[in-house]
Amino acid sequence: MRTGFWAAVLASAVITAADADAMQHASPSGAVPAAVAPIPPMPPPPPEPAPGATRDAARTHNCVTFYPEDSAQDHESGSVRLGYDVEADGSISNVHLVKSSGFDRLDQAALACVRTAWRNVPAMQDGVAVASPGHQAIINFNVVSGAP
Fold first, then answer.
1. How far apart are CA 114 and CA 92, in angstroms?
2. What is the pLDDT along the chain (148 residues), one digit of tens a residue?
3. CB-based contacts of 76: which residues, under 8 Å, 6+ apart?
4. pLDDT of residue 19
5. CB 136 within 8 Å of CB 95
6. The 3-state secondary structure of the chain, one letter per residue
7. In angstroms, rounded to a whole number, what is the distance separating the alpha carbons of residues 16 and 21?
8. What pTM value is reported for the model?
9. Domains of the chain by range and CATH?
10. Rg (CA), the chain
11. In the chain, fewer beta carbons within 10 Å around the N or the C end?
């Protein structure tokens, strides 16, 4: 039972290798521009894909229930980068650790979450579901102090 705080896990987003490289070289200053342009209106939804078109793998993921109780109590937080493949049936395979959070329990929890709880809509090519290898995701485990 948690006392005095509750834990929240920010679900991961799939990133490409180029995105991962950009993240490693991003400015750590966290500077925010002084003026922000207004947000343009939302564009209309894209048309249905034409025959022969491709679609990237779609995903929705949540690892909040995998946050280790002991890690939350010890206020362990961190980001785990994982690699994985999406099979033609949407199942996840070849899950592996790319970069550790620095806490073995968090790393193992992230691996368990992706291996057991994630499922994707597979990529499409010429109207046929196809496997898509080489995905990466970052699972963020963050302890948030305060009452729920």
1. 7
2. 343 333 333 433 344 444 444 444 444 444 444 445 566 676 665 555 555 545 555 555 789 889 999 999 999 999 999 999 999 999 999 999 999 999 999 999 999 999 999 988 899 999 999 999 999 999 999 987 664 5
3. 68, 103, 105, 106, 141, 143
4. 42
5. no
6. CCCCEEEEEECCCEECHHHHHHHHCCCCCCCCCCCCCCCCCCCCCCCCCCCCCEECCEECCCCHHHCCHHHHHCCCCEEEEEEEEECCCCCEEEEEEEECCCCHHHHHHHHHHHHHHCCEECEEECCEEECEEEEEEEEEEEEEECCC
7. 9
8. 0.61
9. 11-17+51-145 (3.30.2420.10)
10. 18
11. N
Token reading at 9? 């896990």
Query: Residue 92: how many CB atoms within 10 A of its CB?
Result: 21
Listed residue (19, 10, 11) closest to 136, CA to CA: 19
List residues bridging with 84 in a β-sheet: 135
Query: Side chain identity at 100, as an amino acid letter?
Result: S
| Tokens of residue 85, six digits | 């493949």
- Extract the tokens encoding 114: 């992706």
- Give the distance between the most distant pair of CA atoms in the chain: 56
CB 134 within 8 A of CB 105: no
